[in-house]
Amino acid sequence: MPTANSSSAADAPQPGTLRNDASAAADATPQPGTLKDDADGTQKDDADETCDPDALLNPDRVASSPLPGVVLLKNALDDAGQREVLEWALRHGIDRKAWLDADGALNAPRQFRGRCYDAVEAVDRRAGALSDALQKAAKQAYGEVDPVGASTTHLLMLFYAKLERGLGWHRDNGRSDGRDLNPVVSLSLGASCSFRMKHGPNDPETVVQLESGDAILFGGPARHVMHAVTDLRKGTCPAQLRDLVRGRVPGDPAEWRLNLTWRHAPELRGLEGGDRFHILGAPTSSFVAAAREKGLAAARAEANARKLARKQKKARRRFGTDCALGAGCGRPCCAPRTTLTHHDFLKSQPAEEESPPAYLMVLYLVGPVALGVGAARVARWVFE
Fold first, then answer.
1. Which residues of 158-168 are buried (b: 16+ CB within 10 A; e: fewer)?
2. Which end of the chain is less congested by CB atoms within 10 angstroms, N or C?
3. Can you give the pLDDT at residue 273?
4. Mean pLDDT by 10-residue block, N- to C-terminus, for the chain (384 residues)?
5. What is the 3 state secondary structure string of the chain?
6. pTM of this prediction?
7. Alpha-carbon dihedral angle through residues 268, 274, 278, 280, given to the nearest 10 degrees
8. Cα separation, 294 vs 302, whole angstroms
9. Cβ–Cβ under 8 Å, residues 142 and 199
10. For residues 194 and 233, what is the distance between their CA atoms, to the nearest angstrom?
11. Separation CA 163–CA 133 (nearest Å)
């Protein structure tokens, strides 16, 4: 991936949102914030307001270090801070359509999520200040989160419109995730979840609970730690945030989660706004292509049909044709909520007592007699 030098970075177009439509470049330029009435009656842009990074944080936050290189900041943002961050996140994600596709739907429909990965300054000027403040707070609490000092350059925002699935195990070591050991800064808003960490596939897990306003940073020795997001819990979204979401994004305004993840990746400067920056897997690429051509409903129907076909094929190999349609074959191995296979089921059954074959019965009866007669003849021959 080419790296922009200092002169080209200055002349590069303003980084924008990862978009699928042709108008992405036009909409990628940061738009001014909402206009407010000042004390003298004039209007000003809220993006021009001074931003005190320390004022964004909750003075009553609690810091802990669940793993070396990991710092958890509970209650990093108070209610007012959470509302402020959510406001400028929605402005970029919804008003500038960073989370939406050309049809106005969330741009990651298979996961019911909206996603964008942009340069920090393209999202909001206060985004970089908030990241610096969180790093400073982590540094003050635990010095082992080193190295700290370089400001983050890019911000990933994931909006979960449904609390049905989180994120599987992965490491932030992709080509768009940054190359150094500066910490990843992650902030949670909305519903609570479980954040799981481990260094290797066979290592024990460390689990922390993330609630709205919590932040977690991992860098240095934990920069590439494996992590996953699970157990998104319904009914945990703060009431003071629901009115900001209601009517602006699809889904239940009381059941959503927003994650903001900052990374230090200066080598990506000037490369935002294209497929080379947003790498999609083959299944997702085919789904996006089908959605563009046939519509979202048809693309989902095709994806569900392919999923059912894979399940049927697997069931035929494992259970036989009786179980291929997922309806069960009537045997205990196919009962709901069981993982017992046919092989395991047969092994668990008591062996049936079967009559031995006829030739074995003949040998059993005639064998001793024949052996006795033979022994007598041998003895007579020896002693005569």
1. bbbbbbeebbe
2. C
3. 64
4. 37 36 36 37 41 78 92 95 95 92 84 90 92 91 65 93 90 87 94 95 94 94 93 94 90 93 90 57 67 80 82 69 47 46 54 65 79 81 72
5. CCCCCHHHHHHCCCCCCCCCCCCHHHHHCCCCCCEEECCCCCEEEHHHCCCCHHHHCCCCCEEECCCCCEEEEECCCCHHHHHHHHHHHHHHHHHCCCCECCCCCECEHHHCEEEEEEEHHHHCHHHHHHHHHHHHHHHHHCHHHCCCCCCCCEEEEEEECCCCCCEEEECCCCCCCCCCCCCEEEEEEECCEEEEEECCCCCCCEEEEECCCCEEEECHHHCCCEEEEECCCCCCCCHHHHHHHCCCCCCCCCCCEEEEEEECCHHHCCCCCCCCCCCCCHHHHHHHHHHHHHCHHHHHHHHHHHHHHHHHHHHHHHHCHHHCCCCCCCCHHHCCCCCCCHHHHHHHCCCCCCCCCHHHHHHHHHHHHHHHHHHHHHHHHHHC
6. 0.62
7. -150
8. 10
9. no
10. 9
11. 29
Give the separation between CA 77 and CA 131, rounded to whole angstroms.
12
- Give the separation between CA 152 and CA 203, rounded to whole angstroms: 29
Cβ 32 vs Cβ 47: under 8 Å: yes
278 contact partners, CB below 8 Å, separation of at least 6 = 18, 117, 176
Question: Which token pair is 310?
Answer: 């894979």
- Which one, of 271, 383, 376, lies nearest residue 16 by Cα? 271
Residues written for the chain: 384
Please name which of 120, 240, 124 lies closest in space to residue 185, comparing C-alpha atoms: 120
Q: Is the peptide bond before 147 cis (omega within 30 degrees of 0)?
A: yes
Give me the domains of the chain, ranges plus CATH numbers.
6-278 (2.60.120.620), 298-347 (no CATH)
pLDDT at 324: 43
